[in-house]
Amino acid sequence: MMRKFAMLWVLLLCQMTAWAHKASDSYLIMDITGSTVTVQWDIALRDIDFALGLDRDGNAEITWGELRARQSDVAAWALSRLTLTRSGVCPLALTSLQVDEHTDGGYAVLHLSGVCQGATGALGLQYRLLFDLDSLHRGLLRLNLDGATHTTVLSPTSGLVQYGAVQASRWAPFSQYLVEGIWHIWIGFDHILFLLALLLPSVLVLEMRRWQGVRSFGMAFREVLWVVTSFTAAHSITLSLAALGLVSLPSSLVETAIALSVVLAAANNLSPVVEYRRWLVAFGFGLIHGFGFASVLAELGLPADALVLSLLGFNAGVEVGQMAIVAGFLPIAFLLRNTRFYLRGVFILGSWLTILVALIWLLERAFDLKILSA
């Protein structure tokens, strides 16, 4: 049983290592005024390579020459997966192709333009990029439609949407960013692993330098409540400061510090430095994780006319996502807390493997290496 668990844990953490930076996203910025359409579409080079095979020399690096040589193929592939309608189809064409760097690597920047058949009425949008190859892929849309701003996360279940010319509700930005916050905590594998490293000892107590199960569920619940609340408060502070442009840190420094936080949180389980106030660890490193969440908002952008609602929605979504993780983890961990399986397999072995994975992230991010990342 222990050996099977160890193999499953290793496979899971290796997969999380490959996905560490973030899951597959593309960024759509659309400006539609009347019948005139302009679009900027940022698509990760690794995703285009996955779909079309850009890396002709097989050196795991996509050059500008390799991208430019396939420009017509890239445009045809992308345009076949995006449909706009307004009183009829809005045909789009590529006007220019560029390359830009995002926090997770190189992106092709497609500039598109077109003219709709109608200048008024509802806008229909169907997004299908990569859904046939990667169900975790998401499109992050920022749409300016006749002066009204809309933001949406496009998924396989919400890739077909329709927008009126006027914002439907003043609370729409809150609900949209709520969904986005939930989604981005669930695909933020380094954030999840940091949280789990702090949660692993929540059902244990250190007595005579030995870990033992807590006596009651209430003790474990209070510990988890302190940890999650502290983490939420901390990352909400720095997320808001960064999103408002009041504080800015280099993304490479933030990503490296996040990996280090995972290493230290897991190491504290094996050799406790902070024994009883892990909420302090959660708060201290949560400040760094907030800058990581802020990078998501920086890519998508915040609507100026609904800034507060969008921030509140995103923070609430992150909190809902965290509580879903806690709700799934805590009852099972409490039931298993006194078993050898939990003490040796989940807690000790899990902490060691977490350190290993986080160290790989740390080396990759600090020295711009590719060890296990795709």
Describe the protein.
This protein has 374 residues and is α+β, with helices and mostly antiparallel strands. It has eleven helices and eleven strands. The chain has a six-stranded mixed beta sheet. It has a three-stranded antiparallel beta sheet with strand order 3-6-9, with no helix packed on it. It has a two-stranded antiparallel ribbon with strand order 10-11. Strand 4 and strand 5 form a beta hairpin. Helix 6 runs parallel beside helix 8. It is globular, with a radius of gyration of 23 Å. The two termini are 31 Å apart.
State the main characteristics:
3-stranded antiparallel beta sheet; 52% helix; 6-stranded mixed beta sheet; single chain
The residue ranges in which pLDDT falls below 50 over 5 or more consecutive positions are: none
Give the tally of β-strands.
11
Structural category is alpha+beta
**Residues in helices, as a percent range:** 40-55%
Structural Rg: 23 Å
Sequence of strands across the biggest β-sheet: 4-5-2-1-7-8
Could you describe the largest sheet, including whether it forms a barrel? Answer: 6 strands, mixed
- Supply the number of helical segments: 11
Amino- and carboxy-terminal Cα gap: 31 Å
- Overall pLDDT level: 87
- Into how many domains do the coordinates divide? 2
| Outline type | globular
Q: Determine the strand fraction and express it as a percent band.
A: 15-25%
Task: Please trace the helix and strand order, writing H or E for each element.
Answer: HEEHHHEEEEEEEHHEEHHHHH
